[in-house]
Backbone:
């Protein structure tokens, strides 16, 4: 399977791009840039400015919200097909977490400007982003509930 | 309930007298109205299972009391009392059972379980009927009341045990507790009545219910009169009622399980809605011919079996077309207002008819009400689809279609409103001006010129272009007053407009323009000279024109472009200029400047020759590297390309990412006469060329060119069948065990799923010409909504349209989507024997992206 087909399938499987037709995903796939990271690297740190979102093609990424970016305590670990970094492309605030490479990773990056252009052309993309944000919000709520119940114990 | 029905009727008819039945109808109607109001006021205060306990307990106490009264006293009043208790209890228990289900199951569960529950009720009725037939002689009719009581206690026990184990009803939510619940119920009923004014469907349904009640109860009275006369003892009458109830329940169960859904699926709810009124008319006709037992049995079958099995499910379908928040109040209004009024009226009318001592009058009343019932069923059918479309529109936020400006009385108000908007400095001025010049050409120039000073120069420029199409005295004076403006572009527009007016007092401006330093004003001067055919300045004009086309400065070249339309190929003076233009255009098409490209392509549309082979590849290259607005212009000039290049170009542009570009490409195909509408229909159907989105563009253009309904129908059918075939292909790939190990197969499956959606959309789009476009838009939006309720309603609208052949294929696809199976059916295996078949089929299709995905998957699949 050639690279472009692999990318399209990866995008189609991801929560953000699943609503877009495979034919249109060709353009998105062509807009992606490949970046490789080694185990132990940090993709971005908390409070960094960011203009890229990432889709994991291969490898494993840990997300930490600790103020010290060197501390590897993950609130969630992401695997192939997962997306991250899309939040601050929309709210334009600094990164809310640090992304650590747990296993050697190949990431597909999408630039903010390209994402904005895609959203204008494909409104379905906004639904996908909303869906992924909603999932994250739910996960955070569950995590908060667990923390609360542990504190009460 | 079957025991109650049989015993209440038999005891009342035999011990009290059937002549009092009409009076009972009136009393029952009042009691029913009051008890329903009381029920509505109390039902949502406590969980449904608890309310069931109260209902069962009260009913059991009343029944035992009644049995004691019948057994121990000679009071004749016990029988009508028992009759009323049964009638009210049967209604309340049915209503409360529905309420209980809604508190214990969600909507989907209720929908799935309701056939099982209804079948359970019918089986109960069968057993009850058999028991009545066999036991009434043995235990005595009045003692069956105690058995009914025992069964009620058993039901109470089952509910108590169940809720002791599972807790209270999971969907119970305590209602709003106002101080006066009765008052609240009355206000709900009032709201329900006011809904009748706004909903055609609800109004028609209420009228049909009203006449249905009269039809039903007149028939009921007639057949009971025959039964009472035929069976002399109360035991034999009860036994007969038992047999009748059992037989009718078996028939109702059979029809409900095996026939009703198939009939609704085959003929649609609207046609099935007419069955019960028609069979009622026939039943009355049978009674008219012979007022005897066979006709009565036939009428009983009609009212006790057909009504339950056919009429009730259809009525529920019609109710579901109403929004959720209306349904409750609508049903309450039916029970508390419509039914009691109809029942009282029936009682009164039968009372009057009785005095004639001839059943013909009674039958005449029944036939009249059945005919009116049929009429209102037809009205209900008419309102049904319209109501569903209306509510889907609201739910899916589909706006009403644009209302064209009519030439009626509203014009003046609209014009005043538009004029007011013009006085404000805003970005909409050009659009407003365009609107006014289109719809109010006589007032336009004066109105717009009065406000033109509020705008900037660029806007003035555009507005003058616009007003120039309808040249008036006011515009002429305005242009003359503005001629000395310092803005070159505005001055150019003013000059050009003045020259185009051919007004002789503009003649003097030609020489000044030709002598100007500005290339744009020089171009305007040349244009004026050619328009006025001015011999004195002709030589000067040709010389300036040649200079402009030979000058290397971009501004001179761009200024000269607009003069392309003035080239006369038979004029030898223009030969050199034409050659110069060929060089200019070839250079400008390589430009990276958006404005230069745009102006070149716009003016190239006026090229004086049929072909311009030299620029074929340049246009192709320009198309590939530019945004949609420039790509659109490339299509407009593609007729200048060589034939071969044009063919290649058109194949590519039909698959353009932009819908506007694709539409323009198809428009070009038709206007260039390289393809006739019939060719394009074959393109979509026989050859199935291009992706669905390019086919959608073809369809749009075909629609604009008023393609015949038959051709559009052919397209819709072909597309629906294509979507059906793709659905089968998707199912076969989905169950292929190698799908997980070959990602390309998964991608192909995604692509096929996208294609199915697009092709369904194409089918519906083609149906625009065949049906009311508003309805089709609603169906399209409903199907895309991903909301099961909206999809179901959209399918229902589809089923009720005229084009049943297409609708049936589409519904078949939607049903397949809802019932995902893991086996491949015989029909599917007939089209494709395996995944490889599908891969070969897809790779032969002339759909570039699908072909690409399938070839990629095929390579890996055969390895």
Residues:
């Amino acid at each position: 399977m050639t690279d472009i087909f692999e990318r399209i399938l990866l995008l189609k499987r991801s929560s953000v791009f699943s609503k877009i037709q495979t034919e249109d995903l060709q353009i998105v796939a062509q807009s992606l840039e490949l970046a490789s990271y080694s185990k132990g690297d940090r993709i971005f740190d908390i409070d960094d400015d960011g203009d890229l979102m990432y889709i994991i093609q291969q490898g494993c990424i840990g997300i930490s919200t600790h103020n010290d970016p060197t501390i590897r305590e993950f609130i969630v670990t992401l695997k192939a097909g997962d997306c991250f970094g899309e939040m601050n492309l929309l709210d334009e605030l600094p990164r809310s977490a640090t992304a650590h490479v747990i296993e050697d990773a190949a990431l597909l990056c999408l630039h903010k400007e390209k994402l904005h252009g895609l959203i204008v052309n494909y409104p379905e993309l906004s639904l996908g982003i909303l869906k992924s944000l909603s999932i994250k919000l739910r996960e955070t709520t569950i995590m908060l509930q667990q923390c609360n119940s542990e504190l009460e114990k | 309930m079957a025991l109650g029905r049989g015993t209440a009727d038999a005891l009342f008819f035999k011990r009290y007298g059937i002549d009092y039945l009409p009076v009972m109808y009136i009393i029952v109607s009042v009691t029913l109205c009051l008890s329903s109001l009381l029920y509505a006021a109390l039902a949502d205060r406590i969980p449904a299972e608890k309310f069931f306990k109260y209902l069962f307990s009260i009913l059991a106490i009343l029944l035992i009391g009644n049995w004691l009264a019948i057994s121990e006293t000679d009071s004749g009043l016990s029988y009508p009392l028992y009759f009323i208790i049964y009638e009210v209890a049967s209604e309340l228990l049915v209503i409360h059972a529905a309420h209980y289900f809604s508190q214990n199951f969600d909507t989907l569960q209720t929908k799935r379980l309701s056939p099982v529950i209804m079948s359970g009720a019918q089986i109960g009725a069968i057993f009850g009927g058999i028991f009545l037939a066999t036991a009434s002689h043995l235990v005595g009719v009045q003692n069956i009341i105690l058995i009914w009581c025992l069964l009620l206690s058993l039901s109470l026990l089952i509910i108590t045990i169940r809720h002791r184990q599972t807790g209270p009803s999971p969907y119970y939510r305590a209602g709003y507790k106002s101080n006066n619940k009765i008052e609240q119920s009355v206000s709900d009923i009032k709201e329900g009545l006011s809904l009748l004014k706004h909903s055609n469907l609800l109004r028609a349904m209420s009228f049909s219910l009203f006449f249905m009640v009269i039809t039903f109860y007149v028939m009921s009275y007639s057949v009971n009169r025959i039964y009472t006369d035929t069976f002399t003892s109360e035991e034999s009458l009860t036994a007969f009622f038992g047999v009748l109830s059992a037989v009718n329940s078996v028939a109702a169960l059979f029809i409900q399980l095996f026939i009703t859904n198939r009939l609704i699926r085959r003929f649609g709810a609207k046609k099935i809605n007419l069955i019960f009124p028609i069979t009622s008319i026939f039943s009355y006709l049978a009674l008219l011919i012979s007022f005897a037992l066979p006709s009565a049995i036939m009428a009983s079958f009609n009212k006790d079996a057909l009504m339950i099995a056919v009429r009730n499910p259809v009525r529920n379908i019609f109710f579901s077309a109403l929004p959720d928040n209306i349904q409750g109040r609508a049903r309450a209004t039916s029970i508390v207002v419509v039914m009691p009024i109809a029942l009282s009226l029936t009682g009164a009318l039968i009372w009057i008819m009785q005095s004639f001592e001839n059943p013909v009058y009674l039958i005449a009343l029944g036939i009249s009400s059945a005919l009116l019932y049929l009429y209102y069923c037809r009205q209900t059918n008419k309102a049904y689809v319209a109501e569903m479309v209306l509510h889907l529109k609201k739910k899916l936020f589909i706006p009403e279609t644009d209302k064209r400006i009519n030439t009626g009385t509203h014009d003046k108000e609209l014009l005043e409103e538009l004029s007011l908007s013009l006085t404000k400095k805003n970005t909409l001025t050009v659009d407003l001006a365009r609107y006014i010049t289109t719809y109010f050409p006589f007032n336009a120039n004066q109105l717009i010129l009065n406000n033109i000073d509020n705008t900037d120069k660029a806007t003035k420029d555009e507005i003058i272009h616009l007003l120039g199409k309808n040249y008036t005295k006011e515009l002429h004076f305005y242009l003359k007053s503005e001629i000395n403006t310092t803005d070159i572009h505005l001055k150019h527009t003013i000059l050009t407009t003045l020259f185009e007016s051919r007004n002789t007092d503009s003649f003097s401006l030609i020489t000044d323009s030709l002598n100007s330093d500005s290339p744009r004003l020089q171009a305007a001067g040349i244009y004026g000279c050619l328009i006025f055919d001015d011999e004195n300045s002709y030589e000067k004009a040709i010389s300036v024109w040649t200079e402009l086309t030979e000058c290397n400065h971009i501004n001179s070249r761009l200024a000269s472009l607009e003069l392309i339309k003035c080239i006369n190929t038979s004029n030898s003076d223009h030969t050199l200029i034409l050659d110069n233009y060929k060089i200019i255009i070839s250079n400008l098409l390589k430009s990276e400047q958006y404005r230069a490209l745009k102006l070149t392509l716009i003016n190239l549309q006026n090229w004086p020759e049929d072909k311009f082979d030299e620029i074929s590849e340049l246009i192709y290259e320009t198309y590939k590297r530019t945004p949609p607005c420039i790509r659109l212009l490339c299509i407009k000039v593609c007729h200048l390309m060589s034939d071969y290049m044009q063919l290649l170009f058109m194949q590519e542009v039909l698959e353009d990412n932009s819908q506007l570009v694709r539409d323009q490409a198809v428009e070009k195909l038709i206007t260039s006469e390289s393809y006739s509408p019939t060719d394009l229909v074959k393109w979509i159907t026989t050859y199935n060329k291009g992706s669905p989105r390019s086919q959608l563009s073809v369809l749009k253009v075909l629609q604009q060119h008023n393609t015949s309904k038959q051709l559009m129908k052919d397209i819709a059918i072909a597309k629906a069948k294509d979507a059906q075939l793709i659905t089968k292909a998707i199912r076969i790939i989905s169950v292929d065990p190698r799908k997980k190990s070959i990602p390309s197969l998964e991608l192909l499956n995604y692509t096929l799923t996208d294609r199915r959606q697009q092709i369904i959309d194409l089918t519906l789009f083609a149906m625009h010409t065949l049906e009311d476009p508003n309805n089709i838009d609603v169906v399209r939006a409903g199907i895309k909504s991903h909301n099961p309720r909206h999809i179901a309603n959209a399918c229902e609208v589809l089923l009720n349209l005229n084009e049943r052949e297409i609708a049936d294929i589409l519904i078949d696809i939607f049903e397949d989507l809802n019932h995902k199976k893991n086996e491949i059916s015989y029909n599917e295996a007939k089209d494709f024997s395996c995944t490889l078949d599908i891969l070969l089929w897809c790779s032969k299709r002339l759909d570039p992206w699908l072909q690409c995905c399938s070839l990629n998957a095929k390579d890996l699949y055969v390895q």
Q: What stands out?
A: The two ends of chain B are 68 Å apart (CA to CA). Chain B has a mean pLDDT of 87. The longest helix of chain B spans residues 359-395. Residues 495-588 of chain B form one domain.
